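Incident log, structure service

09:12 report received: a user says their structure output differs between two submissions of the same chain.
09:20 pulled the input from the user's history:
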Amino acid sequence: MMQVLHKNWVQQTGVALLAVLLFLPGVGNMPLFDWDEINFAECAREMLASGNYSEVQLYFQPFWEKPPLFIWLQAFSMKWLGVNELAARLPNVVCGVLTLMLVFNLGKRHFSLRTGWLWVLLFTGSLLPHLYFKSGIIDPWFNLFIFLSVYFFILFSNYKAFKQQWFYALLSGICIGLAVLTKGPVAILISSLVIVVWMVIKRQFRLWMTGAFWVFVLSALLMGSAWFIYEIANGKWNVVEEFITYQIRLFSTEDADHGGPFVYHFVILLVGCFPASLVFLSGWRNKENLTPFQLHFRLVVLILFWVVLILFSVVKTKIVHYSSLCYLPLTGIAAVALSTASGSGKIAGWNKVLFWLIGGLFSLLFVAAGCFKWFKGVVTSREVVPDDFTRANFKAEIPWWGWEWLLGIVFLGACMYFFRMLQKGRTKELLYGLFGLSVCVMGCLNVFIPRGELISQRAAIDFYRQCANHDCYVESVRFKSYAPLFYAQRMPEHFTDPGFIAFLSREQKAYLERGESPIKYISLLYTRWLLESEVNKPVYFVCKIQNEKELFTNLRLRKLYSKNGFSFFVKMPIIKGI
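09:34 re-ran on a clean worker, output below:
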C-alpha cells in the first residue's frame, strides 16, 4: 500500500513540475497584450487602487462585461507580487498546473496510466492549449470549472447510491456557479445543453425528477447568483442589467468587429490544436474495448465538445478563445483513442495530408519568423505591405541571436518522430514525441511571441510607462486600448475632474435618449473631453500614423515623435495670466 501511495505521489509531483516548467518561464518578461490581457489586469489594478473589491471597474466606472472571480484572483496575485505582468498571468499558470493534474488523474483513474500521460502531453504539445496557460485571460479558469462540472455530472448520472448522487450533484452545481462568477451565464447555457442532449440520446428524461438533479440546479443557482444578489442588494441593479444585455448582444451581433464564417472555430481547432486535432478526427468514433462507465464518460465528454463547437459557431461574435473549452474534450478523446488502439496505427490518406500540411506550415512559419532579420527590408516595402501602420511596425528594432530559425527545424523533426511512432502504434515512443513537441511549443512561444509584441505595440507601451512618472493625462485616439490605463498607472483622480464629470453627465443623456449604454463609450467620451476641453495638466495622445493628420487639425496639439507605427502628441495647459 505504501509503495502504491509513494508511486502515485511521484506521478502527481511529476505532472505538476512538468506544468510549472512548461508554463511559468517567460510569463512575466513581456508586456500584456491589448485588449483582453490588459483589460482584465487593469480591472484588477483598479480594485487595488480604489479599494473597491465588490465590483469590477474600468476607468474607475462600473464594468459590466465580466463577473469578478478571475479579477479577484489577479488582484490577490498583484497584492502579493505587485502590479506587473507576472502577477497578471500567474493565476493561469496555477490553473495550468491544476488542469494537467486533473486530466492526468481522470485518464489514469478511469482508463489507464498511459491515457493519463497521453492526455497531459497531447494538451501541452498543441499550440493553443499550451498558449492559454501563459496568458492573462479568463478562459482557462472558466474552462476548468465547466469541465469539472461536467465530470461530476458524469458521476452523479452514473451512480445509483443516494449519498453519492447527491454529493456529486452538489459539486457539479458548485462548479457551474463558479464558472458563472468567472465569465457569466453562458456557463449555465453550456451545461444545460450538455445535460439535455445526453438525456435525449440516452432517453433518461426522468433525470430531472430526481432529488440529485435539483441539488445540482439549486447549488448552481445559489453559487452563480451570489455576487449578483450582493450587487442588487447594494443598489447596483443597473450593473446587473447592463451585464445581461451585454451577454445577449454577444450572441446576436458581432462584438467589436469580431465576426467570421460558421466554420471559423472548426478551422481554429484543426490548426491550433495540432497534432491532437488530427488524432481526435481519426479516433473520435472508435469506442471498442471500453467498459460501460468508459463509454458513458466518453459520450458526455463528446457531447460537451460538440455543444461548445456548434454553439460558438452559431454565435455571431467569433473570437479564438471562445472555442477553447473544446481543448479538454478534444485532447481527452484523442488520448483515449491512442491508448486503446492495438498494434500499428493505420492512418487514412486524408489524415496524412492534413498532418504534413499543418505540421509543415507551422515549421515553415517558425523558420520564416527566425529568418525575419534577413528579409526585414522586403516586408517593410510598400509593394509587399501596403498598410502604413503594419509596415512601420516591422521597422521595430528586435534582438535576434541568429539561431531562431532552427526551432522550426526541430519542430518538424518532432512532428516526424511523432508521426512515425503513430504509424507503428508504439505508445511509449509516442509519449517521447509528444514531450518533444511540448518543449518545442514552449520554446517557440517564448522566442517568437515577445518579438511579435515588440513589433505590434512596444513603442506605445514604453511611452505609457514614461507617462506614469509624470502628473499628466494620457489616452489613445482612434484606436481602442486599455494600455494607457494600466501602464500609465491611472488613478481615480484622473477621472474625477469636475469638468469631466459635467461633460460625462451631459453626454450620457444623449446616449440614453438613443437607447444606448453610455458606459460602453466611456473611453470615447474621455478622449473627446481631453481633446476639446481645457485641463490643468499636460495631456499626451497616442495614435496610429495613418490618423495623425486628424490630430494636426487641432492647433493645441504638438507632435513629439513617431515610432514603429505610432505617433505621439502633447497638449499643454493654458497658464492664465501669461
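09:41 both user submissions now match this output. Likely a transient worker issue. Closing.
09:42 reviewer note: The longest strand covers residues 557-563. Strands lie at 57-58, 61-62, 473-476, 539-544, 557-563, 566-571.
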